[in-house]
Design brief:
CATH architecture of the largest domain in chain A: 3-Layer(aba) Sandwich
Order of helices and strands of chain A: HEEEHEEHEHHHHEHEHEEHH
Largest sheet of chain A: 6 strands, mixed
Strand order of the largest sheet of chain A: 6-7-8-3-9-10
Number of helices of chain A: 11
CATH class of the largest domain in chain A: Alpha Beta
Number of domains of chain A: 2
Radius of gyration of chain A: 19 Å
Helix content of chain C: 55-70%
Shape of chain A: globular
Number of helices of chain C: 24
Oligomer: heterotrimer
Strand content of chain A: 15-25%
Order of helices and strands of chain C: HEEHHHHHHHHHHHHHEHHHEHHHHHHH
CATH topology of the largest domain in chain A: Rossmann fold
Largest sheet of chain C: 2 strands, antiparallel
CATH superfamily of the largest domain in chain A: P-loop containing nucleotide triphosphate hydrolases
Shape of chain C: globular
Number of strands of chain C: 4
Number of strands of chain A: 10
Chain lengths: ~270, ~325, ~525
């Protein structure tokens, strides 16, 4: 039985069709297609500048693609086209991301960083803030508790009151994940979560990603350069080069694919 | 009520060319001054991304230095042309010194600070310089002596081009050509362009960025000084807060042309000057200043990169 | 030695720099040239000493290496705690006794300043005594300040400096000490209008208005990180709403209490109107657009009137006839002369003396300030406040975390402007006469400097900043001429040496229900 058959049984969460994007004269993405199914870990690999982060930015509506579709199917089975939405709406639908170059809120505390992410799941407004009725007080307490619980889950509870910029690099990466989880996503996009980590930390991160997938019941789309991690985590891998899909399949298939080897190691080794 | 077609056909027939010419040259005069000042804004912005709020005050100090020099030299019995030239030299020297000192005290320690800090510091310098001149000199409008010689060859068109306007237009054209050549061909000019493109890389290549930034401030201030002394001889009246409005308008010109772009600043200055002049001539002179601000806002909203600037892409 | 040479060069440079403007003066009409050599000497000597301090501070901030500064000997001197203490003590004594001596020598200081205990006719009540004590405090504030600073100097010399600082800092931190301080301060403010002269009451009202303005601007600049340079425009909207509204529809039943919220509302609308087109702009472009907006508002006010006629004129004749008259009459702003005759606030239709009215305005201003402080601190600690902060820190991440950027910016603008509107209406009620000179860019810059000097984002800091910037110049009349000069310098110095302002914004201390124990990271104190 091939990997594809086993895959086909699961419902699709995110589907990208013919996505193209151009920066001036540069074709950053051309006709990219991708599909993430429920509770899968899908990896996106490719050499630097292949357009992986641009794809993430298109999915999360930070960039508007020139053509193509990004379809997100939510928990109730409704399909949404994300291409014309604004980033916070995408997050509201249930998709959250981390950034390649860490983008925490540096001079807010660790806890507040996570609390911000509860924004789209809460609703107190100006009047609520001014008059503080019991519902708002309850909501605030709920935000604090849920955020703290998430910090604990990611092993950051000891530093909850630190300024986020004082955190160690690995802790900042974990904080970004905690923050993304606080938006209650069913699809999590991780942009090079292991970048700059030592092998020990990477191993811990690998366990953490698996645990998040199983316990929070999410699908994960991952950009990563650490091949060991990608191969051992992924259910499915997409390979990009120069803004195009060049291969896809299970880890074994991708590992054996001559195009992929060529893309990574160059002409001479093919 | 006449039909619109009728109005259009008479519009060209009845156009008052003399009036138009007058407005055009007055716009060009003002525009040249704006261009001279806006070069300082645009060069500084190009290199350290700072809106040097105090730049207008440098221009004002240039005018005041010229006034003081004129008083001193006049009492010593110098001829008018000599006073004008020596006054201009003194203004350029002093304004360059002010620009250099200002950068060293108020901006250099803030390199690498938050974005807001240098801007607020610049506002502080602006307030300080205004009040320094207010206290050191006077709060009243001061009369500026008429130093510009008669130019007989302008006689036929004197109704629309006064000698002072002629001097302003010619001087600023010459100065701008010199600046363009300087930026393009000299070592310092090339280093400035490199630093504006990528400061870190320029530093790695052995360019002393601090020196380049100082040089930028000095050059920008010198240009503003020329503008200051020219406008003072043109309007023959100065005051300690002429710098604020001129500064804002010059900044508008810089933004209009595309901030960071030197030809843009020149073009922007001229366009703004002419626009203002025509607007006050044909619409209402009450709204002259408002017009500049309206242009500024519209440009920033609809084409923040200006006429000659390149749009910047966002990096995520 | 190198340091002295360096300072000498710097001072020569400044003498050269200030030479034409500070030394030479040409008398406008006669053309006579006056040489003021004293100024050059003053600048030379002053800069010589200041340049040491400047370099020492730069070294301390780590901006230049110590060897380069050439002040090794000085730093060495300061590095022994004993000497450092001496310097601090000297500074404290100069700060305390300097102004006092200045007053004594300058104005024929005498013990009898119109203060007599209420003993003359034998009968006195505790209230009279309280009034007497309060008057005495107000009269002898310089002496009291000098005494306090001397006390501080003595304590510092004894080596109790750190402990004293801890005691001084306590009222700024959450806890009973702070609550008591706040209540005491409030109680002190209550009887003031009955103890002070009209002029002083006006100054205090002005201070309250500025605290409100500062806190309002703090929402936009400090919390949401949007630099607004035309804030005074919203202040003008509030003031003119009251003035014009009163002229158009004022009457027995429609007065201050109707126009106060309306002023806030209109200012908020103006804020939204301004923010809609500028949402996309980056920090300094936003600053310039708002500056342009502020100037346009001022120019409109100065030009005199604004009317719908050009637009109304486009409509067909019969439609124009059926329009209400207010659409056809131009709105008259009074031009540079402004609008006068604005009535003071009413109190249930009661007739009041002029003095009582001012006192009444004082209490309204006090109440509004208290309301503002509470409202602003609640906003800061709310979901909305967090979204502003996140927006300030990183716009892209903020959006990706589900915060609606546009909505957050709009609410920040609207709320910030709203307080300026309240302040404006109050200002109009206080002065009963307004004109465009109260709404220039300088005012915007001053409000901004209140926020920046006090500490961006810190509520206590902004309030303190407003008090310093409004009250201090009033009490240091001698320096009045130099007020703006000092503002300018202090803005620069503040940015260079203490960009966070006088008081750092404090973080809310959070204790979470399910927390295991106090985590080690925060066990030390509240502030990071």
């Amino acid at each position: 039985m091939s990997a594809l058959d086993g895959r086909a049984k699961l419902p699709v969460v995110l589907e990208i069709r013919n996505l193209s994007m151009r920066f001036g004269g540069l074709m950053a993405l051309s006709e990219v297609a991708l599909c993430v199914r429920k509770r899968e870990i899908v990896s996106l690999i490719g050499p630097n500048g292949a357009g992986k982060t641009t794809l993430f930015n298109c999915i999360t509506s930070i960039h508007q693609p020139d053509s193509g579709l990004v379809l997100l199917t939510d928990q109730r089975g409704t399909e949404h086209n994300l291409t014309r939405l604004r980033p916070h709406q995408v997050t509201g639908l249930g998709m959250a991301r981390t950034f390649q170059n860490i983008r925490i809120f540096p001079s807010m505390t660790v806890l507040e960083n996570v609390m911000v992410a509860r924004h789209c799941r809460t609703k107190a407004g100006i009047l609520g803030a001014l008059f503080r009725p019991p519902t708002v007080i309850r909501e605030e307490r709920d935000i604090e508790e849920k955020s703290y619980a998430l910090l604990k889950y990611m092993g950051l509870e000891a530093v909850y009151d630190e300024d986020a910029c004082n955190l160690a690099y690995g802790q900042q990466r974990r904080l970004e994940i905690a923050r993304a989880l606080a938006t209650e996503p069913f699809l999590l996009l991780l942009d090079e979560p292991a970048a700059g980590m030592n092998p020990h930390e990477t191993e811990a991160l690998r366990g953490m990603i698996l645990r998040i997938r199983d316990e929070a019941k999410l699908s994960i789309l991952l950009i990563e350069h650490d091949m060991n991690m990608v191969m051992s985590l992924s259910d499915h891998i997409y390979v990009m080069e120069y803004g195009c899909n060049i291969a896809e399949g299970s880890p074994e298939e991708v590992r054996a694919n001559p195009d992929v080897i060529q893309a990574y190691l160059g002409e001479a080794h093919a | 009520m006449p039909s619109p077609g009728f109005a259009m056909s008479t519009f060209f027939a009845e156009i008052d060319w003399r009036y138009l010419g007058e407005l055009f040259f007055s716009g060009l005069t003002k525009g040249s001054i704006y261009a001279l000042i806006s070069l300082g804004y645009t060069m500084v912005y190009g290199i350290i991304e700072l809106i040097n709020f105090a730049h207008g005050e440098i221009y004002m100090i240039g005018a005041f230095t010229g006034l003081v020099m004129a008083g001193v030299l006049g009492s010593l019995g110098f001829p008018a042309v000599g006073i004008l030239i020596l006054g201009a030299v003194a203004a350029v020297v002093y304004c360059s010194a002010y620009g250099y000192t200002m950068e060293k005290i108020a901006y250099r320690p803030l390199r690498g600070a938050q974005r807001l800090s240098p801007l607020i510091s610049a506002i502080g310098v602006s307030i300080f310089l205004q009040n320094y001149v207010l206290i050191a000199q006077s709060g009243e409008f001061l009369r500026y002596p008429n130093l510009i010689p008669d130019m007989p060859f302008l006689q036929p068109i004197s109704y629309m081009l006064r000698p002072s306007s002629f001097l302003i237009i010619v001087t600023s054209a010459v100065v701008m050509v010199i600046l363009t050549l300087f930026i393009k061909y000299t070592r310092l000019g090339k280093a400035m362009r490199a630093t504006a493109q990528n400061r870190k890389m320029a530093m790695l290549l052995g360019i002393d960025a601090d020196r380049i930034i100082s040089a930028t401030f000095v050059i920008g201030s010198a240009l503003a000084a020329i503008g200051g002394i020219l406008i003072a001889s043109h309007t023959q009246q100065i005051n300690f807060n002429i710098g604020f409005l001129a500064g804002i308008k010059a900044f508008t010109a810089a933004v209009l042309g595309g901030i960071g772009s030197i030809p843009g600043a020149m073009l922007g200055g001229l366009v703004l000057g002419c626009c203002e002049s025509f607007a006050s001539g044909y619409i209402s002179c009450d709204y002259e200043d408002m017009f500049a601000f309206a242009i500024l806002i519209l440009i920033l909203i609809f084409r923040p990169s200006g006429l000659l600037g390149k749009p910047k892409s966002m990096k995520v | 030695m190198r340091g002295i040479v360096r300072s000498l060069l710097v001072s020569l440079w400044f003498v050269f720099l200030t030479f034409p403007l500070l030394v030479i003066k040409v008398v406008p009409n006669t053309g006579e040239v006056i040489w003021r050599w004293k100024n050059a000497a003053g600048i030379g000597i002053g800069i010589f000493f200041l340049s040491f301090i400047w370099r020492a501070l730069l070294v301390k901030r780590g901006l230049i290496p110590q060897e380069e500064a050439g002040i090794g000997r000085l730093m060495q001197y300061l590095s022994t705690p004993m000497n450092k203490q001496r310097v601090v003590v000297a500074c404290l004594l100069i700060c305390g006794w300097g102004p006092l001596l200045y007053t004594i020598m300058g104005s024929g200081w005498s013990l009898d300043r119109g203060l007599a205990p209420p003993l003359q006719d034998g009968a006195f009540t505790p209230l009279q005594w309280a009034v007497f004590v309060a008057r005495a405090l107000a009269t002898f504030w310089q002496e009291i300040l000098a005494a306090l600073l001397s006390f501080a100097a003595v304590q510092h010399a004894k080596g109790n400096g750190a402990r004293m600082m801890a005691i001084l800092r306590r009222p700024t931190q959450p806890g009973p000490a702070r609550n008591i301080t706040i209540i005491l301060l409030f109680l002190c403010l209550l009887p003031l209008p009955y103890l002070m002269k009209i002029y002083q009451i006006n100054v205090l009202i002005q201070t309250f208005i500025w605290v409100m303005l500062g806190l309002g601007l703090n929402i936009v600049v400090g919390q949401a990180g949007l630099l607004v340079l035309g804030y005074v425009a919203f202040y003008a909207v509030g003031a003119y709403t009251y003035a014009l509204g009163n002229a158009l529809l004022g009457g027995a039943h429609i007065g201050f209490w109707f126009f106060l919220p309306l002023g806030g509302l209109f200012a908020a609308l103006a804020g939204i109107l301004l923010s809609l087109p500028v949402l996309r702009l980056r920090g300094d472009y936003l600053a310039i657009v708002t500056l342009g907006f502020g100037e346009i508002v001022r120019l409109i006010l100065e030009s005199g009137s604004l009317s719908l006629l050009p637009f109304v004129g486009l409509l067909p004749e019969h439609v124009i006839h059926s329009l209400p008259t207010w659409m056809k009459t131009p709105l008259n702003f009074g031009g540079p002369a402004g609008i006068g005759g604005i009535p003071p606030p009413g109190f249930f239709g009661m007739r009041m003396e002029l003095d009582d009215n001012l006192r009444y305005v004082y209490y309204i201003a006090l109440a509004m300030t208290v309301f503002t402080i509470i409202a602003v601190s609640r906003l800061r600690d709310s979901r909305l406040g967090r979204s502003w902060m996140a927006l300030r820190e990183d716009e892209i991440a903020c959006e990706a975390m589900g915060v609606d950027k546009i909505k957050a910016k709009l609410t920040a603008f609207a709320l910030g402007a709203c307080w300026a509107g309240f302040g404006g209406a109050l200002f109009a009620a206080q002065t009963s006469y307004i004109n465009p000179t109260s709404f220039t860019f300088m005012q915007s810059a001053l409000i901004l400097s209140v926020v920046v000097l006090g500490g961006l984002g810190s509520i206590l800091g902004v309030a303190l900043g407003a008090c310093i910037l409004i009250l201090l110049p009033e009490y240091l009349r001698a320096f009045n001429e130099y007020r703006m000069l000092i503002f300018g310098i202090s803005m620069v110095l503040m940015m260079v040496f203490r960009p966070q302002g006088l008081i750092m914004p404090k973080r809310k201390r959070r204790v979470i229900a399910g927390m295991d124990a106090v985590p080690p990271a925060s066990a030390g104190g509240f502030e990071a």
